């Protein structure tokens, strides 16, 4: 292991990180794990309060629970293939975590695996795996999919799975997309026929009447070139 100030680079060739191996290193900011590591133990990085950046191996055979618990400054993580479970408290209280990539090998996620991740804006996961996630995280994963595919044609099977969620909860997803100020997500819903004109008109009228110019502008921009002519036929500010 090479240790320099606030950075640790684990030497290539090691195959295991033991339970609690780096727990409590509260000054550690960057940690690099080589691809030779195939097993990461329970709570290995717990209470690394300053940890901002971690490079995980490409693949693992086993990964423990509570891995990043209380890593308050961690911003993004790409979980390795071979990860089958997001265990109990895996990312609990990772307040700064904004983005996470989850592998195709994932089979389950504990209800507390993402608890306290109040900054989480993007969860990259196959639509086939959305049901694995805790209920609150599913909304974030669906929004991420919409934002990534707003200007593309997603695979039909993936789109069908995502759109099942959206159709069942149209208002909830439109609320989330608008409050998140995501033009891409609103555009996806409109272009795929997942937000009806009545709901869009209601949002436009309410936002204009309440003086929410930013939201009104977002909606109008999202609806450009989508064919939703009726919604745009009247000036919402009149």
Structural overview:
With 238 residues, the chain is an alpha/beta fold. It has two domains: 1-120, Alpha-Beta Horseshoe (Leucine-rich repeat, LRR (right-handed beta-alpha superhelix)), CATH 3.80.10; 152-238, no CATH class. It contains seven helices and twelve strands. It has helices at residues 135-149, 156-168, 170-179, 183-191, 197-209, 213-223, 229-232; strands at residues 2-4, 7-9, 16-17, 30-32, 39-40, 53-55, 62-63, 76-78, 85-86, 99-101, 108-109, 122-124. Strands 1-2-4-6 form a four-stranded mixed beta sheet, with no helix packed on it. The chain has a three-stranded parallel beta sheet with strand order 3-5-7, with no helix packed on it.
């Amino acid at each position: 292991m090479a240790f320099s100030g606030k950075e640790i680079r684990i030497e290539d060739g090691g195959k295991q990180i033991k339970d609690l191996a780096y727990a409590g290193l509260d000054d550690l900011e960057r940690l690099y794990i080589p691809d030779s590591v195939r097993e990461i133990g329970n709570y290995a990085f717990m209470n690394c309060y300053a940890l901002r950046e971690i490079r995980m191996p490409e693949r693992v055979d086993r990964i423990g629970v509570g891995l990043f618990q209380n890593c308050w400054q961690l911003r993004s993580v790409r979980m390795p293939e071979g990860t089958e479970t997001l265990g109990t408290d895996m990312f609990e209280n990772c307040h700064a975590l904004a983005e996470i990539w989850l592998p195709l090998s994932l089979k389950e996620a504990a209800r507390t695996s993402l608890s306290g991740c109040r900054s989480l804006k993007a969860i990259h996961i196959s639509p086939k795996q959305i049901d694995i996630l805790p209920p609150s995280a599913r909304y974030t994963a669906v929004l991420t999919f919409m934002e990534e595919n707003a200007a593309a044609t997603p695979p039909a099977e993936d789109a069908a799975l995502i759109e099942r969620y959206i159709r069942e909860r149209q208002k909830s997803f439109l609320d989330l997309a608008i409050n998140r100020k995501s033009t891409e997500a609103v555009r996806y819903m409109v272009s795929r026929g997942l937000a009806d004109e009545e709901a869009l008109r209601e949002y436009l009228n309410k936002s204009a009447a309440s003086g929410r110019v930013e939201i009104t502008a977002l909606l109008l921009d999202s609806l450009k070139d989508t064919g939703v002519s009726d919604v745009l036929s009247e000036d919402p500010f009149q």
